[in-house]
Write a structure and sequence with these properties.
Protein name: Tetraspanin Tsp2
Largest sheet: none
Number of helices: 10
Strand content: under 5%
Radius of gyration: 41 Å
Keywords: Membrane, Signal, Transmembrane, Transmembrane helix
Organism: Rhizopogon vesiculosus
Number of strands: 0
Distance between the termini: 65 Å
Shape: rod-shaped
Structural class: mainly alpha
Length: 199
């Protein structure tokens, strides 16, 4: 956004500076030094003028511009053209500046709201595990262990994982929901009935 702001303000400032500070001197220097015969001829044909001050001063000869031409010099028309074009450029550029500043302000305000507690590192609600879904996962895990290693090994592994897990401490900190979890999904003792006796 800062780069866009710089690219927006720079042309506006340059065109404003060009128009405001000694535009006549810059136009004189451009006509006499920077423009070649083709450039002068293009300006003369477009602005319907001949020469800079008159047909006798730095004019490019054409069908309409010659020594006895009645066309005026290009200085006044060319300066008016430059003023109009430069004014249009910096007006458009500076009129977009408030919109750009508003976008930058909104971006800064929104970025300040993404903190550790709000937005950053926060699991979406649709992907959060509830105690019921954890019980289903543990049931599936117990069934896989019983099918692969037998009921005794599976019961031993599950007993160790329950002792080392943080579910009990998390549940006790939330008002005893761990007892509900263990009572609603305490089917691990019946592994002997579900698992095959031999592999």
């Amino acid at each position: 956004l800062w780069l866009c702001f710089a690219l927006l303000v720079t042309p506006g400032y340059l065109t404003y500076k060009q128009r405001t500070f000694n535009l006549e001197g810059k136009t004189n220097a451009q006509w006499s030094r920077d423009l070649n015969a083709k450039g002068r001829l293009r300006i003369q044909n477009r602005l319907h003028c001949c020469g800079y001050y008159s047909p006798f001063v730095e004019a490019t000869v054409s069908q309409t511009c010659y020594a006895r031409s009645v066309l005026p010099g290009c200085k006044d028309a060319y300066i008016r053209f430059e003023k109009n074009v430069l004014r249009m450029w910096y007006t458009i550029a500076f009129s977009l500046v408030p919109l750009q500043l508003a976008i930058m302000l909104v971006g800064l305000l929104c970025s300040n709201h993404v903190t550790y507690r709000f937005g950053k590192g926060m699991m979406p609600k649709a992907y959060r595990l509830s105690m019921g879904s954890m019980g289903v996962i543990m049931d599936n895990y117990a069934n896989q262990l019983a099918e692969q290693y037998g009921s005794d090994v599976a019961a031993d592994i599950l007993a160790r994982s329950q002792a080392n897990s943080r579910l009990d401490s998390y549940a006790s900190g939330n008002g005893g929901t761990g007892t509900t979890y263990m009572s609603s999904h305490g089917r691990y003792d019946s592994l002997g009935m579900k698992a095959p006796e031999s592999l």
